[in-house]
Amino acid sequence: MTRHDSITQARIDLTAALRWASRHGFSEGICNHFSMVVPGHDDRFLINPQGLHWSEITPADIVMTDATGRIIEGRHPVEPTAFYIHGRIHLGNPTAKVVLHTHMPYATALTTLQDGKLEMCTQNAFRYHQRIGYDEVYNGLVLDNEEGDRICRAMGDKPVMFLRNHGVIVAGKTVAQAYDDLYYLERAAMVQVMAMQTGRPLEIIPTQILERTARQMAGESQQIDYHFAALKRLLDRDEPGWDRLT
Length: 246
Prior knowledge:
The protein is α+β, with helices and mostly antiparallel strands. The longest helix has 22 residues, at 175-196. An eight-stranded mixed beta sheet has the order 4-3-2-1-5-8-7-6, with helices on both faces. α1 crosses α8 (222-238) and α2 packs across α5 (145-155). It has eight helices and eight strands. It has one domain: L-fuculose-1-phosphate Aldolase (3-Layer(aba) Sandwich), CATH 3.40.225. The two termini are 19 Å apart. It is globular.
């Protein structure tokens, strides 16, 4: 396996997540963004550019910006709402090294329901027990620091947030961790929506059991890295050139 410096590896990992988000059906046109704090530079961020479909992005396309949104490295512009959401969360929450924002369909469907939330009714949902924040205010497009800061405050220390009538945000320490949470969040939401369509009540698991199961899942954190490594191997097999650096 080729060894890369940490910033190059960050570009590669973001690209892998973006490409797989497209393959998993999490993308929406050319909208939404994945970002990461530049390793060793807490005031700089890597983010996908404006105008490119996630399925065509390579590490060479990933843009580096500073804390004001000024492009430091990159051949493409960055869409304004990207920085106001991602930049403000990165600056306001030091633990949010990676921030993924999507309008993926099943999780977003839950944000459109009155009092909609991820219910503790499936095993995949249990990993999110007490890890989800809910922003109940929709204020239109995020086009200023004030709204970005409000979203950051609403998220607090939660790694996952449901944005009312909008979509979801997932944060993590690594791209692998954040993408694993994003993937299983949509799977849990999908099963819940399908179950709700039957018109029958959901079976909510007792708190004691779901807390124990959540701890068991946290103890198998090696699955996160195995999952992301497998996704990159599949990109190597199916999409040669996805990781080009020029």
